[in-house]
Design goal:
This protein has seven helices and five strands. The strands form two sheets. It has a three-stranded parallel beta sheet. Strands 4-5 form a two-stranded antiparallel sheet.
């Protein structure tokens, strides 16, 4: 995590505390940046003791052979038009990465016994996030728990698409800024009654 990321996470926690938000259960991915973001925010809130469930289904989209390349390197290697298709299309995944390479997750003990995808489109990411929402997060909400989720641009995009019923052709253009808590207020059926960035209220 960068120093700026740590500052943003701390500021987000301080903002949530200042606005009177509190939580009963937290969820995050198995990736370090989301875990660190959550811990820094919870520490700023004085809530490091809250229970946290970590799951790979909240991980960032797997960019396959593009993982680890910055935008300029990716464009130089594959061409701007192709890179735009991979990054912004709804259902076209990037090429597979090199087996056994630095970003091959098959030997990472966090994922032992889990068939982790080696490349994903946004459609694929949504398809793996939503079962976790249905199995773990939605039941916690139905039980009356206040939930905090620390995840990544595309896994959060999957949840926003689901909750706000955003069409496939519009979700690829939705940007989720880092360090800006999004608040969903839900009715008993988990239908949103309000959605806003906390910094705007």
């Amino acid at each position: 995590m960068t120093e700026q990321g740590a500052r943003e996470a701390k500021a987000a926690g301080e903002l949530m505390a200042a606005k009177g938000l509190d939580f009963d259960q937290t969820f995050t991915s198995l990736q370090l940046r989301a875990i660190k973001t959550l811990n820094i925010a919870l520490e700023a809130m004085g809530r490091l003791w809250l229970p946290t469930e970590k799951h790979w289904r909240l991980n960032e989209r797997h960019y396959g052979g593009l993982t680890g390349l910055d935008k300029a390197e990716t464009v130089a290697k594959h061409g701007e038009a192709q890179v735009k298709i991979w990054r912004r299309s709804f259902d076209v995944p990037p090429p597979l990465g090199e087996p056994g390479g630095a970003f091959d997750l098959s030997n990472d003990r966090r994922y032992a016994g889990i068939p982790i995808p080696q490349t994903e489109s946004l459609k694929d990411t949504i398809a793996r996030v939503l079962p976790y929402w249905d199995d773990r997060i939605a039941p916690a909400l139905r039980d009356g728990q206040r939930v905090l989720i620390s995840a990544h641009g595309n896994s959060l995009r999957a949840l926003v698409k689901h909750l706000s019923n955003i069409p496939d052709d519009e979700i690829t253009g939705l940007e989720i800024p880092t360090g800006q808590p999004i608040v969903y207020e839900l009715d008993n059926g988990l239908t949103p009654t309000d959605r806003y960035y906390l910094s705007e209220r």
